[in-house]
Amino acid sequence: MSAVGTDRETPHVRADVPAARWTGRDDGPGADNLRWHHAVHLDPTEAAPGDVAFVGFRSDEGVRRNKGRQGAANGPQALRRALASMALPRPLRALDAGDIEVSGDGEDALESGQQRLGRAVAALVDRGHQVMVLGGGHEVAYGSYCGLEQTRALREGGRLGVLNLDAHFDLRDDVRPSSGTPFLQMAQSEERHGREFHYWVLGVSQPSNTERLFRTADALGVRYLPDTECGLLGLARTERFVDEFLASCDVVHLSIDLDVLPAAVAPGVSAPAAYGVPMDVIERVCTRVAVSGKLAVCDIAELNPEFDVDQRTARAGARLIHRMVTARP
């Protein structure tokens, strides 16, 4: 079963903030001078199945509720800027569908934003696009899921698999949804729908997760690989973990919390990692998922430009996007 559909009748995506034209370094005309800003267009009527699609999620509310340092609402624009001038190895086309914006701290501001993001994601996936969601706090992941559960692939019985590259389980059982609750929300939704929850986490940090969170993960049947087992010397083990995950599902939701990377690589996040998983391992994992042909949605979360030294975190996130899109079949 294909991870994405090709329904050309899906309604237009409605963004809160329209996309702006991408700009960047220009070395002249011709295919051998292509960069990302040459490839991105803003007109959904010109988008064809197979084009990658970007949608931003400007949200700090989940991080605020989770008592993290705020600033992730500016992450989507920082990721676009970092990606825009990256050189392309071959011609491709991409659609920027604009941003969903969570404004204010009203009772349902976040929840409403996640539902709007879900509608945008569902429309894009059912049109045949692989979707890159630019966050935003990690509450973006539940918004992506809200879209995936509406897609034709899942309605027709496809098995959803969620792979989270993260130092945290994000399985908190809080009164209000936050950046710490998205995967418990997914588990509860899957249970309501009578579906098995396939949730795997790579890079979990023991000091960053209470014993209660580990018990919750075990109770939900979550498969996880600790950060201490994700180094280059353990690459074969990491690759087996990813391959077993891919074999367990038909449609993949990849969620990347940039705090899975070491703080020296990703200082601009809500909670920098003292240990982290090396960038070259994370990049290999992302590439492996991309070439599987099962990736429907990837969200990139927790980029906080206010604390990003030399745009390191934005560049790391943009490179992961670049590798996934240029490596896919």
Question: How would you describe this protein?
Answer:
The chain has helices spanning 36-39, 61-65, 75-84, 109-126, 140-148, 152-155, 182-192, 211-219, 235-247, 279-291, 312-327, and strands spanning 40-41, 52-58, 94-101, 130-135, 160-165, 198-204, 223-226, 251-257, 295-301. The protein has 329 residues and is α/β, with parallel strands linked by helices. Strands 1-3-2-4-9-8-5-6-7 form a nine-stranded parallel beta sheet, sandwiched between helices. Helix 4 (109-126) crosses helix 5 (140-148) and helix 9 packs parallel to helix 10 (279-291). The chain is globular. The two termini are 15 Å apart.
Helix content: 25-40%
The secondary-structure class comes to alpha/beta
Uncertain segments are 6-10
Q: Whole-Å distance between the termini?
A: 15 Å
Widest sheet, order of strands = 1-3-2-4-9-8-5-6-7
H-E order: HEEHHEHEHHEHEHEHEHEH
**Total E-strand runs:** 9
Could you describe the largest sheet, including whether it forms a barrel? 9 strands, parallel
Number of helices: 11
How much is the radius of gyration in Å?
18 Å
Shape: globular
In round numbers, the mean pLDDT is: 94
User: What portion of residues belong to β-strands?
Assistant: 15-25%
